[in-house]
Amino acid sequence: MTPRPLAFAAALATLALLTATGAGAAPAAPVDLSPVPERLGRSALPEGWQHGPFIEIFVRGFQDSDGDGIGDLRGVTQRLDYLKDLGVKGLWLMPITASADHDHGYATTDYRAIEPQYGTLADFDELIREAHRRGIGVVMDYVINHGAREHPLFHAAAADPASPWRDWFVWSPQPLAELADWDIWGHTPWYLPGEQVPELPEGASAPPKPTSTPLAPAGSPRYYATFGPDMPDFNMRNPAVVKYHADSLRFWLNRGLDGYRLDAVPHLIENSARDWNDQPESRALTGDFARLIKRYPHRFVVCEATAEPKVYTRPEICGSAFAFGLERAVIDAAKGGDGADEAVARVARFFTESPLSMATMLSNHDIFAGRRPWDQFQGDEARYKLAAATYLLLPGTPFLYYGEEIGQAGVAGLPGDAPLRAPMSWTGDVRGFSSGTPFRPAAPNIATHNAQAQAADPGSLLNFYKAMLALRNTQPALARGSYEAPLAQGRVLSFQRAYRGERVLVVINYGQEAAQVALAGLSAKRPLRRLHPTASTPARPPMPAPRVDATGRLTLTAAPLSVQVFRLR
User: Fold this and answer.
1) For the chain, which terminal residue's Cβ has fewer other Cβ atoms within 10 angstroms, N or C?
2) Which of 427, 451, 473 is where one domain is finished?
3) Which domain CATH number covers 357?
């Protein structure tokens, strides 16, 4: 795994036209490896937009603008008014660069080109311009760790051991038997060029064996691929590779992009079969990339770091990372089943032990983070709303997943992560998404849980999400305040958020019975202003706002399955 020296200057001087179809084929489109100078400029967004809320968008599944059944950038632009009305301040676009998979986008073939099925650079520029006009920032996925097996540079590297691009990837001359100690999530990460592994069927407990005939002889060097043979890892010990990614990050920042979600950063460097995850070198590299991005004014960076996310949230590394594990506690608390009391306690405790700058969610595009909330709650909207309120009112930067706000269900019977990535349910049938045939079946509950129907129902999930996001957007204490006095009393969670003299109290009852909640240590005789529910809240008439007594104690009644929010005056 030790890379050999690379004469990068000579290699760059002889930049070739490389193929995207196979080693040894005729030259095709060029790979742009040119340096990209930093062009710092003023941000078009207001200070603090990075506090969110954000929404994660699978562009392929969001909105089709041209009738080919595939969502695209123009489709996202067409739906910006919906997103503004929802209350989000930022969009996270799953990979939009050219890819070999033509689906999830994480098998990148060109880091400086838009996936052709999604549109053009002009479409990207228009999306940025129109989002900024509405005060919405745009961040996109950037896949540092690996590219596609179809990436032209990998084809050249695989075809010729003497290729100047060979050391852009990680190779081992050892036979597979001598690499047996390597085991990543139940499979070897070492593959022969051309080797394929069938897609993991839904519900399978172990990865299938490779079935295709490799293009290379059995004794040939193997390449390293953390996420399977279709996505070979880059050699991030090679300064030329690091420079290429740095230049590519600047390429999009110079066009007005507002930041990045950095994918799989704990996997950038491997030291051995035992030490392949979350190495010190990976943390250092992540910090270097994050600092590059943050040199641009008002930019935002969030990292996917399933290993030690709290560590990657440190300012010297990424500054923010997804709070994996919190989503499970929130959903378990809201479900109210066995162990709910302990789950409520875990939720209360989480931000006493974790940085407040972490990114929060209920679910995302990966099945390991859980099924869509509609499926986890089996259609119980009351408990669904409790979970939504919890993570939207807690500290952190919240990330909705498209369709979450309308209760979109997953699509059963599809493999892997595909059930989570269906077309957005805009109307009661697929024509709201596309005038053509959608790339994937619609959600099974599209007839009832679609944006059009939910917008017309005052008591809908969509309007509840709007109410929670409006609270967050109008109360600075909820957007960026401290986290104080967390208390779990059985199935009741309470906490306070404070910012620049403003203080907000949140009380959530996950139980089926009304509960008396006693709080102490408040400012004596301080009146409370009820922020939620209000007189306009459907089916939940507010009770009179309680008052703190002369000893600083507050006693209030928490109705079953309820959320109450107060501002302490």
Assistant:
1) C
2) 473
3) 3.20.20.80
Put the strands of the sheet holding 190-191 in their side by side order.
Answer: 171-172, 222-224, 190-191
Q: Indicate whether 118 belongs to any domain.
A: yes
Number of independent structural domains in the chain: 2
Count CA atoms within 13 Å of residue 553 on its CB side.
5
* CA atoms of 265 and 259, how far apart (whole Å): 16
The pLDDT score that the predictor gives to residue 539 is: 53
Do 335 and 341 form a contact (C-beta atoms < 8 A)? no
**Of 473, 493, 508, which marks where a domain is finished?**
473
Q: How far is CA 538 from CA 95, 152, 246, 544, in A?
A: 39, 57, 50, 16
Q: What pLDDT, on the 0 to 100 scale, is given for residue 541? A: 56
Phi, then psi, of 563 in degrees rounded to 5: -125, 125
For CA atoms 156, 159, 164, 167, give the dihedral sign: positive
Contacts of 204 (CB under 8 A, 6+ apart): none
- Both tokens assigned to 290: 């994050």
558 in the same domain as 451: no
Sheet holding 300-303: strands in order across? 300-303, 259-262, 137-142, 90-93, 54-57, 397-401, 359-360
Q: What's the residue count for the chain?
A: 569
In terms of domains, do 246 and 269 share one?
A: yes
Among 360, 429, 365, residue whose Cα is nearest residue 394: 360
Q: For residue 418, give its domain range.
A: 54-145+239-473
Cis peptide before 438 (omega within 30 of 0): no
Q: Does 487 share its domain with 509?
A: yes
Shared domain for 398 and 523, answered yes or no, is no
pLDDT at residue number 61: 99
Burial class of residue 94 in the structure, from the number of CB atoms within 10 Å of its CB (0-12 exposed, 13-18 middle, 19+ buried): buried
Establish if 541 belongs to a structural domain. yes
In CATH, what number is assigned to the domain containing residue 537? 2.60.40.1180
Cα distance between residue 311 and residue 457, in whole Å? 43
β-bridge partners, 495: 506
Query: Does one domain contain both 114 and 67?
Result: yes
Q: Is residue 459 within 8 Å of residue 539, measured between CB atoms?
A: yes
Classify residue 512: in a domain, yes or no: yes
pTM, two decimal places? 0.91
What pLDDT was estimated at residue 543?
65
Least Cα distance to 428 among 404, 405, 449 occurs for 449
Structure tokens at 327: 């989503």
CA 569 to CA 563: how far, in whole Å?
Answer: 19
In this structure, the answer to whether residues 505 and 411 fall within a common structural domain is no
What is the block-wise mean pLDDT of the chain (569 residues), using blocks of 10 residues? 36 36 38 95 93 98 99 99 99 98 94 98 99 98 98 95 96 94 94 72 41 56 96 98 98 98 98 94 98 98 96 98 98 96 98 98 96 98 99 99 99 96 98 98 98 98 99 97 97 97 96 94 83 75 75 92 93
Whether residue 410 is found in the same domain as residue 556:
no
| 444 part of a folded domain | yes
Q: Do 409 and 545 lie in a common domain? A: no
Residue identified by tokens 């944006």 is: 451
What pLDDT is stored for residue 217 in this prediction? 59
Contacts of 213 (CB under 8 A, 6+ apart): 194
